[in-house]
Specification:
Elements lengths: L4 E5 L4 H12 L5 E4 L4 H11 L6 E4 L2 E4 L3 H8 L2
Parallel strand pairs: 1-2
Antiparallel strand pairs: 1-3, 3-4
Length: about 80
């Protein structure tokens, strides 16, 4: 099963760490974009999600805001 997962985070976000740990516990490979170190990435993220908060996770083109393990698994297991 080939998944495309990108997690948008900030350096000091505890919930971001929860998302990453959750994905790692299922051996899900993901790309991390730390938006507080990359203002261009932050602006693009806001444009795509219309949200100012992190974590924002994109799984196979679907956005998840915050830490929602049930929804993450549902998308990953499609």
């Amino acid at each position: 099963m080939n998944q495309t997962v990108t997690v948008y985070t900030s350096s000091f976000c505890p919930v971001c760490g929860m998302v990453k740990s959750f994905l790692e516990s299922f051996d899900i490979t993901y790309k991390e974009v730390i938006v507080d170190l990359n203002p261009i990435a932050r602006m693009k993220l806001i444009g795509k999600t219309k949200r100012l908060t992190v974590p924002q996770t994109n799984i196979n083109g679907e956005w998840i805001s915050g830490f929602d393990p049930e929804r993450m698994l549902k998308i990953l297991l499609k």
